[in-house]
Amino acid sequence: MIPTKFSNFGFRYIEYATTRNNLLRHNKLLWAHCEADHDICWDREFLNQFCRLFPFQSVKTVRLRLNLAEALLELKSLNVKVILLIRDPRGTLQSRKHRDWCPGEPDCDQPNYLCSDMVSDYSAAIRLKELYPSRFRALRYEDICLNPYEIAEEVFNFIGITLHPQV
Fold first, then answer.
1. When comparing pLDDT for 25 and 2, which is higher?
2. pLDDT tens-place string over residues 65-107
3. Nearest alpha-carbon partner for 86 in 19, 151, 157, 11
4. CB neighbours of 103 closer than 8 A, spacing ≥ 6?
């Protein structure tokens, strides 16, 4: 289980999130409280207590280089599992065209940067799979699209949760 007390990383994330309200809207349970009292979602003590209610925590990051995620895997006390989602670079670039944070940013919308990042992530993935075989997994976006139920079951097994029929 991941400790819910916010570390320095958590503090920096909260500060970042205060300028981007849409980050918290993805958490429907939390956002219901935010809508009622907007300031509560920036209150570290409230977030510590709220997060303790849930046995599993998940975080989605976009464009985080995999070698940086290794620091999380090194901390055994966190019991973190990392899933790298890999997509055909053409699909990634097409998707990024429709995001307000990407167009015009060379490290986001230029194929040579994306491909370089993918090569770096591939090297890191090989190393992480050897070092943390039960805590690291790579998935191809295209495989999820072709076999959503099978891949969902594999992901749930990987993170140690039973796949409920309603999922």
1. 25
2. 999 999 989 988 888 999 999 999 999 999 999 988 889 999 8
3. 151
4. 96, 97, 109
Closest CA to 128 of 80, 94, 93: 80
Q: Cα angle at 113 between 96 and 131, to 5 degrees?
A: 100
Q: What is the mean pLDDT of residues 31-39?
A: 85
0.85 cut: is pTM over it?
A: no
Name the band, by pLDDT with cuts 50, 70 and 90, for residue 166: confident
CA 68, CA 70: separation in Å to the nearest integer?
5
Distance CA 84, CA 156 (A): 15
61: confidence class by pLDDT, cuts 50, 70, 90: confident
Task: Name the CA dihedral angle for 95, 97, 103, 107, rounded to a multiple of 10 degrees.
Answer: 40
CA distance 122 to 129: 11
CA-to-CA dists, residue 135 to 28, 49, 114, 118, angstroms:
27, 26, 25, 20
Q: 120, 67 in Cβ contact below 8 A?
A: yes
Separation CA 59–CA 31 (nearest Å): 15
